[in-house]
Amino acid sequence: MREDAKRLMTKISRRTFIRGAAAVGLLAMLPVARGCAKRCHAKVNVAIIGGGAAGLSMAARLARRLPNATLTLIDPADKQFYQPGFTLIGAGVYKPDVVWKNQSDCIPDGVKWIKQAVVALDPTKKEIRTGDGGRLTYDFLVLTPGLQLNWSQIQGISLDTLGEGNAHSIYDFNGAQKTFPAMMSFIEKGGRALFTDTYTKLKCGGAPKKICLLTEHQARMRKRRDAVKIDYFTASKQLYDVPHYTPRLEEIYQERKVNISLRMRLTGVDTQAKKAFFEKTTVSQKQIPDPASGTMKTVEESATQEVIESYDFLHFTPPQSAPDFVREAGLGWRSGKLAREAWVEVDKETLVHAVYPSIIALGDVAGIPTSKTSAAIRKQVPIAVENLIALIEGKTPEVKYDGYAACPIVTDYGHVILCEFDYDKKPKTSFPFTLMDTRKELWSAWLLKVYFLKPFYFYGMIKGHV
Fold this sequence. Notes:
By secondary structure, the protein is an alpha/beta fold. The chain folds into 2 domains: 3-147 and 322-406 and 422-427 and 445-461, FAD/NAD(P)-binding domain (3-Layer(bba) Sandwich), CATH 3.50.50; 151-319, 3-Layer(bba) Sandwich (FAD/NAD(P)-binding domain), CATH 3.50.50.100. It has 10 helices and 22 strands. The strands form 7 sheets. It has a 5-stranded parallel sheet, with helices on one face. Strand 21 and strand 22 form a beta hairpin. Helix 2 (16-29) crosses helix 10 (443-461). The longest helix has 19 residues, at 374-392. The radius of gyration is 23 Å and the shape is globular. 44% of the residues are buried. Residues 9-29 and 31-35 have low confidence and may be disordered.
């Protein structure tokens, strides 16, 4: 991190007492998974596909609640990443080595770990096939494989070429490490920066906005703001879809002279020429006769055109979907807007699969109408545990998830808009932030984001304690 950003972080670090007290206070207020929770002594085989935030949290809790069960976690990863930290690596706040631990150190006691990728799943036979040719059957399945980053769906881009032509993405660990030095070099040289999201549902929808605003703040701290032009392109019809927080976020972009272009889907990048290709959708309304009523009705028509934008620095977000084996197993939604990316068809309240009641799915892969964040997973896990145990005991799952999700949108080095909401996009603020106006930028939320949430993840959440 350059000197001015370092001074800012040093200034914050002097408030150690306040920071520590806030963290302790918040931890004391969070619910704890206590050892006295009712146990189920059924002798069943439970497979858990995926060892990320959702999979490890489920495994840790189930190991305590199902003492006689055979618990098997299947995941090929060597490392467990705190993925929300990738944005802070890309912004120069975190060093890369602080956002991961060895996966072997994160597997709960009493859980067998198969270090392989799942390549096929037959939900009718209740059989899992792994990359080494192994086969595993189960009685009940916890489906938490996360999502798939489809880099190749942007023409001219691949995971291996991240950084070429100054095209970067914090959605990859190595990509995040390349982003900060490239950002600083761009600010020093000047020019035009483009930031994009994507047209699919995505992991941490706030991440593209965060790195955009942090780049803008870096330019101001370096006294180079006049030398750079910053534009944000979203494939959506609005900047943010949670009305409680959207107005202030739009004001911030306007105040900082960051132009927002709506309905712009990134389709390709020419990294040699430094040109980004977009599909721009224009929506218009027209009146047509309605045969049923005999009156005129208003309908929307859309048209698309290609738009080419030059850049000096590009940060893009790859399209995302459920893993291929989920689609091939027929576990995704069969109709509706969640079908295209094969997000898993589960009841949005119980998280039980609509067709296969022996399957519970949660986390990023779940086809539910809320944001894909670790905060959402933390709220889903206890519901999924209770409902899985109900299924094992032959009971009806009755515990319901209300769609809670949280997205701390970093607006500069020192402030965050803490967005918390439910399925209805209504605010669902956690104490002590109920005492504050979370529609505005908060320094306390920055402390939460930078100092508290990472240790909370590693030592609380994936251990099944909170």
